[in-house]
Amino acid sequence: MGASQTRSDHEHQHLTDKTGFSLEQIKNLHKRFQQLSGNEETISKEDLDRIPALANNPIKKQIIGAFFDKRNQHQDEVGSCDEIGFEQFLMVMSHFRPPTLKTTDEEKEAMRKEKLRFLFNMHDTDNDGTITLEEYRKVVEELLSKSGAIGQEAAKAIADAAMLEVASTNVPHMAPDDFYEGITFEHFEQILKGLEMESRMHIRFLDVDTTTMRCGKSTS
Amino acid sequence: MTSRRGSHSPAGFGKSLPERGLLLLVLLVLLEGSVLPLGAAGSPDTSHHTKAGNSAGNGTGNVTHKKAFPVLSLDYHHIQTPFEISLWVLLASLMKLGFHLIPRLSGIVPESCLLIVVGLMVGGLIKLAGEEVPPVLDSQFFFLCLLPPIILDAGYFLPIRPFMENLGTILIFAVIGTLWNAFFIGGLLYAVCQIQPANPSNLHQLELLPCLLFGSIVSAVDPVAVLAVFEEIHINELLHILVFGESLLNDAVTVVLYHLFEEFSEVGTVTVLDCVLGIISFLVVACGGVLVGAIYGILAAFTSRFTSHTRVIEPLFVFVYSYMAYLSAEMFHLSGIMALIACGAVMRPYVEANISHKSHTTIKYFLKMWSSVSETLIFIFLGVATVDGKHDWNWTFVTVTVILCLVARVIGVVGLTYMINKFRIVKLTTKDQFIIAYGGLRGAIAFSLGFLLKKELFPLREMFLTAIITVIFFTVFVQGMTIKPLVELLAVKKKQEAKRSINEEIHTQFLDHLLTGIEDICGHYGHHHWKDKLNRFNKKYVKKCLIAGERSKEPQLIAFYHKLEMKQAIELVESGGGVKMPSAMPSTVSMQNIQPKKPPLAKPVERALPQLPKGREEEIRKILRSNLQRTRQRLRSYNRHTLVADPYEDGLGDLLIKKQKMIELEKKIKDMNNYLTVPAAPPDSPTMCRARLASGKDTDFKPAQQQKGNTIGPDPQAYHTKSVSDSVPAIQVDLASPQSPDSVNMMDEFRRAGQQQQQQEDQGLTMRPPSRPGEAGGARDPQKLTRCLSDPGPSADEEEDEPFLP
């Protein structure tokens, strides 16, 4: 036990440097990871699929997909994998770290880009660097998928309006024959400037271990 | 009225009776009533007038009985109170108007300062004239009439999202911060008063409890003052909601402390039990206030569910229920401010879904109007009251108060932020702390509370009032005037003015779900999780009860989209037709971007299709022209009356515009989509599309339109059957409803807008009958013809790329 403890501590130290989580946070997340995977080394889509709280989430599929997307691993790989280890799990989670008081402006900017890139990748399913209208429609459809028939039909109109908005704000002067192929990352940044992603796209990662007491993978 | 008057002045009547004949009696009663109205007022100084008038009347009465019936008479007392109130309101409004006419002045000095100065001058003038200054800032009047509109405005338009996200911080500042301030100021003030036995004044008589009471009065940040200053400096949302939220929520603390200390001052002793009761009382006051407000808010929302047939009184419900909430809370000495805030915030989402767009605008304007007049009056009255009141200027007391206020605020904010930052994810920076501390302005609420103190219990009431006024003036003038330059100097982040775009809304929602999902995966139930739960509960149960009809099921995103469309449609209509397309969604640019794609699409179609014989073409053109003329006539009537004057708006017109826009957008996108998905579009496919369309079976568009009709309107028939090309049920349905001319005309206007734009762009459009008779006119002939022939007016399904040229 003791040996494995020190080994995992060492590993965690390595992960701390890589992802920016604190040691306690990593321990907490590791516990959760093991819960989800059933003490396996890796986690599969089905494992995440079984989380009961996720059942009502309209974008469940995309969220789970993002975990298995290689683009979110900070390596220049594309495509998706079937199973991820703890390190990859952490890498995905690290996109949701909040900024701290010590974060400098440049770091904040980098953080913002990273978070936006994560979102962008979620939308850009075919990894061609643009979110096409098809893809955008899909996003909105998913978003409204819990609201029945109304949602499905309105989704298209909304996505179209949103696409028009992007096109008009980013490419103000298009020649008559041009057409807007899709949202590039630069345009994506542009349209979401007002949202202040760096200070909004985060969750609270617990420092203290309360996960097992309060919730965890419900056994029912 | 005259008889009433007569009977009200029995003295004059009785005196004159024995000297007059019975015949003259009636006439004299009439005379008395109208000529000598002052007698009716019954005030001591006017009774003299009455007698004089009477005796004069008697003197002349003997000589000439037939005094002419008074054509014009003066009866000021009869109208005095409302007249003076109106005069004050008028003065306030004119002042507000005046400041904004002098551009440089309002740039340097905040309005609140100027208004106080005006109040000072007015008060001075009244004093100079030797009149008695009216007790303008009477507490009763202030709390029951002036304050509620401002708070309701704040509560109704409270940005709920940032407020809830920062609720913890706000509560800590409001509760602990205010408590700290009160006790720090009160305690140290007492200490200062005690260590100066050599002071010639009677300061050392001051006991601890009055000091604490004074501290609690003067420590609360004032929402009115904060609003007035912060609205002008356009600070970022976070800081605004922190300071403003604090000023709203500290009301409960202030109310409790005030009553507590007032009570204790009478009794003189404080036990531990009293402290415990005080804490319980605080919880009751705060939660009770919120509860009362929430109950009334739900009632208001529920009522608004049934107002679809009496739109005119819709706004009234909002105001009356809120006022009832305020009064009910005040009745139990609960926090009226919190009740109002809760009421406004609770009712708003549901009420807005239920009421018509015009009612919404009415509510908005009424609230803004009332609150801004109230605010103006409060500041003017503050000035007047300053001149009016008896002052007891004590240098020590006043200076110590001001300094303690500043010090307590700074220490409080820095200390609490240190604590809060341990829990906050987005930390408060030093700059933020500075602005929060500096934005702690005091205002008229403190003054009114001080005004309420009883002279018998607090012999130093005048000194308290003077000190309170000094603090108010100091914060409003010094801090209020310097905060703007300081904000610039520190480069504090400002509020972005940009309006919310649909993309941002989509991603806000997306982010909410994403973060909830990630939290769930992490297995820790944080804010997002609970918010999601609450949202789902709201959607599942609450909305169904409180929102009528289809809209209860409408997801937020769709609701937002509709609102956006709505706004654009209205902008479009108000801009007077067609020169500018709505700004946000299909902006001018993107329209250019999309529309030019049609010509290359359309041209081959035209060529490909068989041409019409000339005679037939003429016929079509005539029909088109007459149609257009009718459109114009209706347009005119619509502009003059319906939009402006019709209060019985039903929302139908709005819906129709919405639908219309959706359909058109759909088509545009369809065209765009052709391009987007098939970049190098082979000429065939769109051509085929067009050809099919032209041959009378616009199957391409039908499904889309039908869908739209189904989804959005409450009356889907309007677009349902429209695809049956020769009968146009859209119009028929419209005619059946009382609003028909309105709605049809709005559609016309809208369509015309689109057409005009196309005319401007003028790039080989499909149908241009007059100028290019050969190729265009016949393109969609058979169907068009039948459609036009049977059309009473422009139908809903005419495509916008068909310009009817006169």
From TrEMBL, chain A:
* Name of a matching Pfam family: EF-hand_1
State any GO CC term: lamellipodium
Record GO terms (molecular function) = calcium ion binding; protein kinase inhibitor activity
Name the residue ranges with Basic and acidic residues bias: 7-17
Highest rank taxon of the organism: Eukaryota
Alphabetically ordered keywords of this record: Calcium, Cell membrane, Cell projection, Cytoplasm, Differentiation, Lipoprotein, Membrane, Metal-binding, Myristate, Nucleus, Protein kinase inhibitor
Q: Where in the cell is it found?
A: Cell projection, Lamellipodium; Cell projection, Ruffle membrane; Cytoplasm; Membrane
In terms of PROSITE patterns, this protein maps to: EF_HAND_1, EF_HAND_2
Q: What is its main location?
A: other
Biological process, per Gene Ontology = cell differentiation
Q: Where is this region: Disordered?
A: 1-21
Please list the residue ranges annotated as the EF-hand domain. Answer: 111-146
Task: Provide the membrane topology annotation.
Answer: Lipid-anchor
Respond yes or no to whether keyword Signal is given for this record. no
Q: Which family does it belong to?
A: Belongs to the calcineurin regulatory subunit family. CHP subfamily.
Name used for this protein in its record: Calcineurin B homologous protein 3
* Organism this protein belongs to: Sparus aurata (Gilthead sea bream)
UniProtKB/TrEMBL annotation, chain B:
Q: Name the residue ranges with Polar residues bias.
A: 52-61
Q: Which residues form the Cation/H+ exchanger transmembrane domain?
A: 90-488
User: What subcellular locations does the record give?
Assistant: Basolateral cell membrane
Organism lineage reads as: Eukaryota, Metazoa, Chordata, Craniata, Vertebrata
Q: Which reaction does it catalyse?
A: Na(+)(in) + H(+)(out) = Na(+)(out) + H(+)(in); Li(+)(out) + H(+)(in) = Li(+)(in) + H(+)(out); Li(+)(in) + Na(+)(out) = Li(+)(out) + Na(+)(in)
Q: What is the first-listed, main subcellular location in coarse terms?
A: membrane
Can you supply one Gene Ontology CC term for this chain's record?
basolateral plasma membrane
Residues that span the membrane, as ranges: 21-40, 109-129, 141-158, 170-192, 276-300, 365-385, 397-421, 464-487
Q: Which family does the UniProt entry place this protein in?
A: Belongs to the monovalent cation:proton antiporter 1 (CPA1) transporter (TC 2.A.36) family.
Q: Name one Pfam family in it.
A: Na_H_Exchanger
Record domain Sodium/hydrogen exchanger regulatory region: where: 584-688
Q: Look up the record and give one Gene Ontology term from the biological process aspect.
A: sodium ion import across plasma membrane
Task: Give me the stretches of Acidic residues compositional bias.
Answer: 796-806
Check the record and name the Gene3D superfamilies matching this protein.
6.10.140.1330, 6.10.250.1040, 6.10.250.2020
What residue spans carry the region label Disordered?
Answer: 42-61, 698-724, 736-806
| GO molecular function per UniProt | calmodulin binding; potassium:proton antiporter activity; sodium:proton antiporter activity
Instruction: Give the originating organism.
Output: Sparus aurata (Gilthead sea bream)
Q: How does it sit in the membrane?
A: Multi-pass membrane protein
The protein's name in its UniProt record: Sodium/hydrogen exchanger
**UniProt keyword list:** Antiport, Calmodulin-binding, Cell membrane, Glycoprotein, Ion transport, Lipoprotein, Membrane, Palmitate, Phosphoprotein, Sodium, Sodium transport, Transmembrane, Transmembrane helix, Transport, Ubl conjugation
